[in-house]
Amino acid sequence: MDRILIVDDDVELCELVREYLAGEGFQLEAVHSGDAGLKRALEGEYSLVILDIMLPGKNGLDVLRDLRQRGSRVPVLILTARGEDVDRIVGLEIGADDYLPKPFNPRELLARMRAILRRYQASAVPAPGPVEVGDLGLDAGAHTVWRGGQEVELTSVEFSLLEALLRSAGHVVTREQLVNDVLGRKFMPYDRSVDMHISKLRKKLGDLPDGGERIKSIRGVGYLYVRPETAGR
pLDDT band at 121, cuts 50/70/90? Predict the structure, then answer.
């Protein structure tokens, strides 16, 4: 049974989520402050942490930042106030695996959780061989990325997105494919989470050695990782 930690100061919400997830085979534990959440997340063996941004004491973004700085790779789903794009973007930048705006439908929460867990479980199966495109390489087995011989640190979602793009380098990967295959959920026209992850990925990877874009946006379709031999075309 997967153990889930929820960090949220809304006690009634935590209890409702606990009852719902129990019926789906999950064991949920709840704490109601940022400091308690950080302590429990570091000490416990959890399959996933559900983390609210607005918390008494240490806020959710600080909790997430501390978790990642201390080397924790536990998957984290952040809960944000509807319309708070800055919180979502910052959360994804510092290592959240996905976000869900409040108020939310419990079925949507469950779908997001299962997608994250599937992605992490998939990393435990034998991985395909390394792939190199120009100065960039990716080894799925070792979960490492290097550019010009220097390792680049990526979040799990960024890594999965880059792998999908590299293995199709020179060809367009649709936004729908990325949402379905990487985020593990149904594509919705106004879901911009993939775009946020791609934006952060671009910043971490930088441009090609000749100054060109590595990842091109194909308007209305998706993204393309540029092969060096086609960069100038």
Answer: confident
Q: Can the peptide bond before residue 56 be classed as cis, meaning omega within 30 degrees of 0?
A: no
Q: How far is CA 135 from CA 55, 202, 207, 216, in A?
A: 43, 15, 11, 17
pTM for the model: 0.64
- Helical pair 156-166 and 106-122, crossing angle rounded to 10 deg: 70
Q: How far apart are CA 53 and CA 140, in angstroms?
A: 31
Contact 108, 115 (CB under 8 A): no
Domains identified in the chain and CATH numbers: 2-122 (3.40.50.2300), 131-230 (1.10.10.10)
User: What is the average per-residue pLDDT within 213-220?
Assistant: 91
Q: Residues 6 or more apart from 173 whose CB is under 8 A from it?
A: 164, 165, 222, 223, 224
Produce one character per residue of 75-85: b if its CB has 16 or more CB atoms within 10 Å, e if not: bbbbbbeeebe
